[in-house]
Amino acid sequence: MKLLDKNGRLFGKLSIIDLAVIFFVIIIAIGAYIRFAVTEPAQIEVAEAPVRYIIEVENVRDWAQNNIRVGDRLFVSGTSVGTVVNIEAIPYVMIVTGDRGVWHGEVPGRYRLFVEMEATATVRAGRYFVSRTVPMDIGNSPTHFTSRYADFHAVIKEIGLNG
User: Fold this and answer.
1) 3-state secondary structure of 27
2) DSSP states along 69-81
3) Average of pLDDT values for 118-129?
4) pLDDT for 135-146, tens place per residue?
5) Cβ-contact 112, 59 below 8 angstroms
6) Greatest CA separation found in the chain?
7) Cβ count near 51 (within 10 Å)
8) 122 vs 49: CA distance, rounded Å
9) CB within 8 A of 133, min separation 6: which ones?
10) Per-residue pLDDT reduced to its tens digit, 47-103
11) Whose CA, among 5, 90, 114, 137, lies 20 to 30 Å from 70?
């Protein structure tokens, strides 16, 4: 008895294509069993906590500084990221380099702002997510903030749990 006959059947009964389909169905059945019967669903616990963070806004004109107020809600891409609780303004110092050295000088009518914010965030793997979706990392994202009266770029300087 031949392994394959002239019609391409294994031992004259099953074709190689039939065997491939049966093998594929068995693999799918085993995968479905493992996925739905053996593994337990993951229990992800997400706890929300109040946080305070400070953002730094550089080179702000005086009229723009006056449009960021205590009590304002700030947004990133339309998502609320907290409420302003304190603002500290200091004169903006510009560094100028030239042939004869480096100079530091205050720029009239320009300020550097430190805006303290309160928000509710989830903490996962050491990262803070305000409004469950906006990552808050020191030194970077988010950089573009908006409020009712202002639109500005800022860097997160500090973040921590409130209390």
Assistant:
1) helix
2) -TT-EEEETTEEE
3) 86
4) 888 886 657 899
5) yes
6) 99
7) 22
8) 6
9) 79
10) 788 999 999 999 889 888 888 999 999 999 889 999 999 999 999 998 888 888 888
11) 137
* Residue among 43, 52, 20 nearest 117 (CA): 52
Tokens of 104: 């530091």
pLDDT score of 46 more than 70: no
38 pLDDT band (50/70/90 cuts)? confident
Banded pLDDT at 41 (limits 50, 70, 90): low
Buried b (16+ CB within 10 A) or exposed e, 88-121: ebeebeeeeeeeeeeeeeeeeebbbbbbbbebeb
Q: CA–CA separation, 152 vs 147, rounded Å?
A: 9
Could you tell me how far CA 153 lies from the centroid of its own chain? Answer: 16
Q: Please, what is the Cα angle at 129 between 126 and 135, to 5 degrees?
A: 95
How does the average pLDDT of the chain come out, rounded?
Answer: 85
Beta bridge partners of 98: 101
Q: Which residues contact 85 (CB under 8 A, 6 or more apart)?
A: 52, 70, 116, 117, 118
